[in-house]
Structure formats: structure tokens, C-alpha cells
From TrEMBL:
<dbReference type="InterPro" id="IPR002078">
    <property type="entry name" value="Sigma_54_int"/>
</dbReference>
<dbReference type="Pfam" id="PF18024">
    <property type="entry name" value="HTH_50"/>
</dbReference>
<dbReference type="InterPro" id="IPR025944">
    <property type="entry name" value="Sigma_54_int_dom_CS"/>
</dbReference>
<dbReference type="Pfam" id="PF00571">
    <property type="entry name" value="CBS"/>
</dbReference>
<dbReference type="InterPro" id="IPR030828">
    <property type="entry name" value="HTH_TyrR"/>
</dbReference>
<dbReference type="InterPro" id="IPR003593">
    <property type="entry name" value="AAA+_ATPase"/>
</dbReference>
<dbReference type="InterPro" id="IPR035965">
    <property type="entry name" value="PAS-like_dom_sf"/>
</dbReference>
<feature type="domain" description="PAS">
    <location>
        <begin position="169"/>
        <end position="214"/>
    </location>
</feature>
<keyword id="KW-0547">Nucleotide-binding</keyword>
<dbReference type="GO" id="GO:0006355">
    <property type="term" value="P:regulation of DNA-templated transcription"/>
</dbReference>
<dbReference type="GO" id="GO:0003677">
    <property type="term" value="F:DNA binding"/>
</dbReference>
<keyword id="KW-0804">Transcription</keyword>
<dbReference type="InterPro" id="IPR000644">
    <property type="entry name" value="CBS_dom"/>
</dbReference>
<keyword id="KW-0058">Aromatic hydrocarbons catabolism</keyword>
<dbReference type="InterPro" id="IPR027417">
    <property type="entry name" value="P-loop_NTPase"/>
</dbReference>
<keyword id="KW-0805">Transcription regulation</keyword>
<dbReference type="InterPro" id="IPR025662">
    <property type="entry name" value="Sigma_54_int_dom_ATP-bd_1"/>
</dbReference>
Amino acid sequence: MQNNRYPSYDCVCRKRCRFVEKRMFNYVGMHLAIMKDIKHAVTLRRIGGTYMHWDWKGVLQPIGLFVNSDMTVKNVFALLKENESEVGFVLEDEEIIGYVTTTSLLDQLMEEGDPNRRIQPEKDFLFVREEDAAKHIHNCSLVIGADIFQQPTGYVFMDRLDQYLSEVQLKSFNDALNSAEMGIVTMNPSFQVIFMNEKAEQILGMKKSIIQGRDYRRLIRMDTSFDEVLRGQKWFGIENTFNFKVISGQFSPIYENGKITGIIHNFYLKDQLEEAVHEIDFVREMNEDLQAIYSLSNEQILVTDHNGTITRVAGAYFNNFWGDIEHDELIGMNAADLESSGIFQPNIIAACMKKNSRVMLTQKGKNGTVLSTATPVMEDGKIKRIIVLSKDVSTDDKSFARAEDATEFHNETVIYRSAEMSMLMDEVKSVAPLDSTVLVTGESGVGKEVVARSIHQLSSRSSGSFVAINCGAIPEHLIESELFGHEKGAFTGADSKRVGLFEQGHEGTVFLDEVSELPFAMQVKLLRVLQEREVIRVGSTVPIKINVRVIAATNKNLRQMVQKNQFREDLFYRLHVVPIQIPALRNRKDDISPLAVSFLEELNDRNGYEKKISTNALNLLESYQWPGNIRELRNVIERLIVISREDEISEKDVYRVLWETDSKEQGFLTIKGIIPLKKAVEETEKQLIELAVEKYGTATDAAKALETSISTVSRRMKRFNDERMPGGASHDLLL
């Protein structure tokens, strides 16, 4: 057995571990004696492959027959037949050195032709500890289990193990479905029932033997069409009647290899559903199947036991945060081990255990950052489990150095996570190396200057100056001298020679912000500068050659201004060489949380605060329309830091800042004439919800006061807000 080695695994240290490279002679006890380092011994099981919950002991068959190595093929074959054994274990000096089967003996007989020849044992076997997790092992046909006394207890062929594990997994899956607290019925594309769990039998009051194979459409009453589910639709909150029982649940398509192969119906009794009390905060719709909620969520849900061992991972999975660890590998890992291995820091689970209450922290992972809230679930005064809700606030940020001659603070970091900004930054990277004129457009406050600086820093002119000019802020009578400079005595007050901003930008970049505000006469002179690449100072006739790249920006539609003769057409085409449109913040909501957290950290550092912001507060920020874009968001964060009386900025604080309107001055609905009844109901509903939220501060408390569901209040408020943006009524309704 000299060639047998313990299977090679990667330890938590991410390198070949000296503990698991030891040869495994005889029984596994030799290796157990070596593995004194508990960290490595424990990690061997957790990191060395998919975590399994079935040990070898449960799959081993008893060892029935031992044979000596000097026995003949004929004698051993007879012993196997006599004892009805499929395998004989070959001993030499009281040690197992291999095994033989009737098949291997017949092969030897055919090859050698001599039944009196000594047996040649098979060597492709391995010893394992019977209490270890069972798993497939490559390059091995048979496994022998050993107990804590190093004695062999049983064996299993690898092909049978694979079949057994598949059966156990299937049984475990069925047990899980039968243990679910919701009814589950699955149908094939012909709507025939192919499975129903025990809870479904209990709710419907009929055995599955009666329902299986029948057309489900004929069993329940429903207003929606099953055909739409087969086309990929999901139906939530659907009420049906079965045997005079009202059930509520969802219908979802079942996919296999990208194709719809059936329908799954998850449901509760309506009465039970209405009485159900949710144990955790993040379940937003009581009648949605957990899997559907998780798949739609952009938040990561982590559940640990009272020791910090991860028992469930659901919702979004942040690969950049966890690094090389796969989703399934997290199950069974301990948060303390992950922290000590450098996977993340700090350990919010440990902080929650220590504080014995809710904790919120920003955690740094391998390549990402999350804002996490850990909430303990208590039982008899002790922590039963901990639920961690995490929001990805990582950014695909690219930092650029500040211009040396900047006269005021500018943040050169482009913070984004949305697909829209990712595409835009790819465009910036492709445009930057060129020397073409760029026209950056977008609403006020979207970050046009930040994008312009990014282009400059990524270009070959990055070592030169970046000169930013706000064309709308310079008085009309001074704009020419500011841009192009002037000679001494050129006009009253010109006591000395002045170098213009274009000359200051020589070998660098000139950024013309609000270029649409240039006077018409000045547009002609700017056009000449762009064409001739030279400026003439006021009071001079000598042209000065300049080498600058021009980036212009505006929040107006220059093409429409050209049509209205408010902007020169030739200048427009000179500027409109490479257009870049920055989307409004409301159209890239994935960027709101990273920006908010970044502004919070910046303002904390500047003012010496240690403020945090809750996940619910971030969710409320994401629901707002942000007419002022990033500039407004930064101002709101600064106001929140000032007005928040607690260390953590809450949902209520955000609501106070974003909804400071004249709603108090607007009286309740006054009927002055005939209006459509539907419109009157909607207006009354709107005012009731607005008053309730204003009074109680959160949608949750408002829903209780109005005796309706949180989801109803949230949807109505979202709709009211959408109707008002942009250019709507006098105030914004949030959430």
C-alpha cells in the first residue's frame, strides 16, 4: 500500500498544506496522530470541497472476508463463492494491502491461465475516517472506513457511493419540500400534477394519490391564465378556491436547461397567511415564495447559528466581496475563521454577539465593500441565530490625481456601480487617448466636470493643467479678457498684462462648463480659437499659438438652441465631435447607495463624525427621484449628518429631509364640483397616506395607522412620487 496517499486538498492557507500531504500507511490513525493542529484539521473538511452532511459511516458495507496474499486465484475464488462475498480484502503481515473481486480474479485467470497462481490484489483503494463527510474521490475505486481505534469497519465502491449520495440528496430535497410551511404543487406543461408536498395535502385536505396526474386547472378556481405562466410570467398574491378553502400564493415557471418544463404553485391558507408573523425584517411580501424574493433581491442575506457558523446564504451573492469562495462553500464556514483568513473585516457576527443587539458596520471584503446589518434572533434570552442583511456599496471606481494648479478642492474619483455608468466610463477610456473635442451633456449636478477631469487624467495631457471655466459665471464685458487675456492698458482698469485661461491651459485641457451661456458675439471668437489654435489678447494684434484640448459641457439642448438662433451652428459642430451623455441619477439608482456612503465617509472625516446610515435609509434614498442629481444627494447627506441625533441615520431622518414641503399648508380634499369618482378616491387615498407618513415618520407605522399592508403604502407612495417627477406638483412624495 506504499502508493496510497491521502487525497490532496487545499487548506485555508491557500497553499499545499504539509498536514494533508502526509502519506497514509495502514490505517488512518497514523495521519490522525500527525494532525494535531485543529485549525488545519477542521479546515480540511470545510475548504476541501463541497460541504456534505453525510459521513462515511452511513454508507459503508461490513467487511466480510479477509484473504492472505499468498493464496491462489482458485482458492480465493472458491472462498468468495462460498461466503457469497463480492470482495475479499488481502492481508500481508496483518495489514490490508489490497482487495480482489470475482471479476478481478477472472481477469487474472484469463491473462495468466494458471488458477494456482498467487492472487494479484487491486491497489486503487483508500482509507478514510468513518466519521468524515462522504464525497466522491477521483482515481479511487474502493474506500475502506476505519474507526477511532484505527480498525477497518466497512467498505464502499465509489460507483455505489455516487448513486447513494444522489439518492440521499434527492430524499433530502423531498424531505425539505415536505417540511416546508407552505403548500407546494408542481405541474408538467399539460398542467397534470406531478408532485405535491405534505403541507399541500394538509391545506387542500386531499391525499396526493388522488390529485397526482389530474389536470390542476380543473381542481382550483382562478381568474388568471396558466398559459401566461408557461410563457415565463410569475403571478404573485393569487387567490384561489379549492374545496371551499381560500388559498393565496404564487405561480412560477419551472426551468430546465433554459426551457420551461412546468409550473410550481406555492400557497398558504389565506386565514393562516393573514395571521402569520414574519420573524425577520427583510421579508417584504408575506405571500411571496422565499425563493422568488431572494432571486429578485439586490441584497445579500446571511444566516448563522449562535456560534457564528453560516447556515444559509440567500438573495444576491457578492462575488467581489467573497473572492474565490463559491456560494455553496460558505455553508458550514465560521465567520471567525473567515475573518482570520482575511476574507473580510471586521466580523459583524462577533460584534453582534458581543453587543447582544442589532449592529450595523461597513465591511471590507476581498475586492468589495458591503454595508451590513446584523440582527440577533433571541430565544429564552439567548441568541438562537443571527441574520445579516448586506447591501453592496462597492464601486467600480477609478481614481485620478488632482491637477496641480487647481484653486479649489475637486473630488476626482468617479464613483459608480450601475451598468449605465460602466458603459459610459468605457466610452471615456476609449475617448481619452484621442485629442478630439468632447461635448459632455446632462442635467445639472450629474457630474459633468468629474467626467471631464477623468478624460483629462486618462489622456496624454494628464501632466498638463486642467483649466475649468464656468462660462455662465463670468460677466459678459469681462469674458473675452478672462478667456484670452489682455495687455496692459487695453481698457480702463487693465493695470497689468494678464494671461488668459486658454494660455494657462497650454499643453493641457480647457473645460468650458455651461458653454451654452456664451454671448453670441463671443461664440464667433471662440470658434476662431478652435479653428486657428491661437488667441489674441485684448489690446494686442499678435496671435499666440496654443495647444489645448477643449472639453465643453452643458445641461441644455444645443441643437434646439441652434434651431432657435441662440447658438451658432458652426460652433456647435466644432464642439459636437465626440458627444457624451451622462444619465440622470434617477436613471441609475444602483449608484445612489455607493455615492451616499462615499459622501458620508468624506463628511465624517472632514467633520470628525462617526455617523452611519441604515439599510432602510439607503432604500429610501434610492426611491427618491433626485431632480438635483449627485449635487443634491451630497447636500442631503450633509444635512442628514447635522439633523440626525443618533449615531445611525435612520429612515425617519431621511424622510424628514426629503419631504420638507408645504404639505401642511395644503388642506384636505375640498369638493367644489363634480369629478370622476375614481379620481376622487385616488386623491383622498393620496392625502391620507401623505398625512399618515408625515405624522408617523415611516411607511411601516403609517400602514398600521391606516390598517393596510406596508406593501400597499409603499406602492402608492412610489406611484405618487413618479407622477410628480419631473415638473409635477409642489412637493415630492417618497418611498
